């Protein structure tokens, strides 16, 4: 059996592929365009492993996706590929519309004729699992109840608007064409292989380099944090037993202000790699706020727990300690990502296979 993953060289996608292959002999076909956020280094431990078939390519390329479906006949498609950084979406929304909206549309339209031609049991068994975000629901007040699956969509950034559009497309392809879809909307992830443009890895990497730790606005914006392998286990559960056409919210019940996050990172670094100049807290700097900055996200994950018995394995305390330790142990990964040197490594190790789909 085979699964097709899009965006499997990114942060969550690569964690998912590694996690999946730790517990399964199924082949994973991994379609990724290797944008700045995609890094085959994340999957270096799978080199030579025949269960992992990497294909460099774009989800907008219908001919390519169609041929992958015909060749590999996957029992499921897990759609992670996206432009994912809110700040980048503010400065340049075009790529977000192309990949997140047009790309999801192209993927659905590549899948539909192939899926329709399957025999009835394969058709019934197939799943299109769309990986999405809590940001589609907009911003909560401090006293509001956490987002549940029926919360109205109120996206506020170009990123969240593009993800909201993709969620609606996936929903419509189920209701109109009967495609067996599943959607998960997850809170903020953190953990290994997180690109150092996002809050937690940026703070770790900057602190170790003695650079400023920029906190937007008053730093009291709240995010709900989930360790990435807990997101992976939730996706596995929903894929295995989720009800077709349903949406499941995924979260860790770990609401933290950005100030708390940065102070926790500094305290852990002070313990694990003491700052020669005293404490990394000296680097905290309050900077201009992000335009349209959502105040609070919080996920109500009770449906997932009630229906599928899913619960996160990590607490925030265990997950953030593992994460800080991972970055301390993988300074070479950070250096390569920042310098772009991993692209040379990709060329050397994957050569033509990466260069041509
Ligand atoms: P990421 O930016 O780290 O990785 C995205 C991957 O998609 C990269 O490998 C990139 O090369 C690939 N990609 C981009 N455009 C592509 C295209 N046109 N064709 C093929 N591949 C393309 O993102 P992430 O943080 O791993 O997020 C993965 C998914 O999870 C996204 O859909 C995101 O919206 C969602 N999500 C992320 C979080 C989070 O906290 N990071 C939380 C909830 C949901
Ligand atoms: O330098 C920073 N300083 C700062 O205060 C950065 C990069 C961020 N922040 C703040 C903004 C947010 O309130 O920290 C919070 C987290 O920011 P990001 O790491 O950029 O994540 P966020 O905007 O919350 O979005 C993330 O979670 C949901 C992912 O990037 C999305 O892909 C996911 O859907």
How does this model look, in words?
This protein has a 7-stranded parallel beta sheet with strand order 3-2-1-4-5-6-10, sandwiched between helices. Strands 7-9-11 form a 3-stranded mixed beta sheet. A two-stranded parallel sheet has the order 8-12. The protein has a domain of 249 residues: Rossmann fold (3-Layer(aba) Sandwich), CATH 3.40.50. It is an alpha/beta fold. Helix content is 45%, strand content 16%. Helix 1 links the parallel strand 1 and strand 2. The longest helix has 23 residues. Nicotinamide-adenine-dinucleotide binds next to helix 1, helix 4, strand 5 and strand 7.
Bound compounds: nicotinamide-adenine-dinucleotide, thymidine-5'-diphospho-beta-D-xylose
Q: What's the name of the CATH homologous superfamily of one domain?
A: NAD(P)-binding Rossmann-like Domain
Main pleated-sheet profile:
7 strands, parallel
**Assembly level:** single chain
**Largest beta sheet: strand ordering:** 3-2-1-4-5-6-10
CATH class of one domain: Alpha Beta
Proper CATH architecture of one domain: 3-Layer(aba) Sandwich
Low-confidence stretches: 352-357
| Radius of gyration over C-alpha positions, nearest whole angstrom | 20 Å
CATH topology of one domain, which one?
Answer: Rossmann fold
Number of helices: 13
Overall average residue pLDDT: 95
Shape category:
globular
Derived structural class: alpha/beta
Helix content: 40-55%
Order of helices and strands: EHEEHEHHHEHEEHEEHEEHEHHHH
Q: What is the number of strand segments?
A: 12
Intertermini distance = 21 Å
Binned strand content: 15-25%
